[in-house]
Amino acid sequence: MRVLSLSTLYPSAAAPNFGRFVELSLDAADATGEVEIVRISPNGLPPWPLSRLLPAYREKADLARKDIWNGNTVLRPHFKLLPGMAPARNPTAIVKAVRPLAHKLHAERPFDLVDAQFFWPDGPAAMQIADALDLPFSIKARGADIHYWTTIVDCREQIVEAAHQADGLLAVSEAIKADIAALGVNADKVKVHRTGIDRSLFCIATEAHDWLRSRLQVPIFEALLVSVGALIPRKGQGFIIEAMAQIPEARLALIGEGEDRTMLEKMAHDLGVADRVHFLGSLPHAEIAHYLQAADVAILPSASEGLANAWIEALACGTPLVITDTGGAREVMQSAAAGRIVERSADAIACAVHELLTSPPHREAVAATVADYSWQANGAALVAHWRRLLGTAA
């Protein structure tokens, strides 16, 4: 089985943590030995000279169109992107860049299937490429691609059309499956495909807990709260910073970068908690694991999610969660040991954190709530899904 996998979410030298979960899922599918995956990650760039003048695109402009990343060949054809403008044109721009390459590769060795790892803009683009090659195609929904992009005029129509035309769909949670069905799509077409986890990194480190806290310069008498996620409005880190005024015995580590950073730094200063709020930027997964292993509570008050990898990674480290009731939250939080689901407010976050600090669950009990998650299971399920679409399931 030969699969053309299309994903604008994929790591690179310019953004090594961007879409890491896509890479790991495809790696796990590769590891089954049942499939050859050709990885195409279209690289959106604004017209020159903006591609050189805008800091966000400078490093991306230097990426080779054929790249070796972590031992895998990744094809990165460039497509024209207009930052903040006309997002509805992006699938067509991707098709223009990818279709000639797809035709060439298909002529050399035929593909069996086209796979899109994200619904927007990858899904509508995959639909057109699959049509050009006369192949079946599949799309995976992860969260914002359904919750956010279906609210944008002209994007929603393309998403719905691609969902109807797809031979199969994947969703990271039952909640996202229901959201897809609410678009008028046959729910029987959608299979739940949960995320995996790198257990060599994200695991309990009880014996190293004090050492980790010392290394991170966290006094043993202080609680450590960690939040992993892009610093954007949807993730809601402002609610955590506001809650910190009610949790004087704790300090907060924010892992991630984004447009809200300056605003959040000012908020921390204005509330008088800046000395206890640490902006760590984007970190390698190994360092994120250290913070989660040393943390007492992980917090993510998102407005919307599918099923966040950050949830599963924290729980696997034995760290309970404080999260909002969004996406697959209730599918993950089926035990009190996993933490608390709260309203999206500073007061609710502070109350839940106090509860967990006062009566912390055993880390082993927390980790047990995600014992079934692994990249091996994720990869095997992905290959099985592709085989079902081709009628070759074992």
Q: What's the SSE blueprint?
A:
Elements: E1 2-6, H1 20-31, E2 36-40, E3 43-45, H2 50-53, H3 55-61, E4 66-69, E5 72-75, E6 78-80, H4 90-108, E7 113-116, H5 122-133, E8 137-141, H6 144-147, H7 155-165, E9 168-171, H8 174-181, E10 190-192, H9 209-215, E11 223-228, H10 237-244, E12 250-255, H11 261-270, E13 277-281, H12 285-294, E14 297-300, H13 309-316, E15 321-324, H14 329-332, E16 339-342, H15 346-358, H16 363-368, H17 375-390
Parallel strand pairs: 1-2, 1-7, 2-5, 3-6, 7-8, 8-9, 9-10, 11-12, 11-14, 12-13, 14-15, 15-16
Antiparallel strand pairs: 4-5
Helix pairs in contact: 1-17, 4-5, 5-7, 9-12, 10-15
List keywords for this structure.
single chain; 394 residues; Rossmann fold; 6-stranded parallel beta sheet
Brief sketch in words of this structure:
With 394 residues, this protein is of the alpha/beta class. Helices cover 40% and strands 18% of the residues.
Task: Walk me through the structure.
With 394 residues, the protein is of the alpha/beta class. The protein has 2 domains: 212 residues, Glycogen Phosphorylase B (Rossmann fold); 163 residues, Glycogen Phosphorylase B (Rossmann fold, 3-Layer(aba) Sandwich). Helices cover 40% and strands 18% of the residues. The chain has 17 helices and 16 strands. The protein has an 8-stranded mixed β-sheet, with helices on both faces. The chain has a 6-stranded parallel β-sheet with strand order 13-12-11-14-15-16, with helices on both faces. Strands 3-6 form a two-stranded parallel sheet. β4 and β5 form a beta hairpin. The longest helix is centred in the N-terminal third of the chain and has 19 residues. The chain is globular, with a radius of gyration of 21 Å. The mean pLDDT is 93.
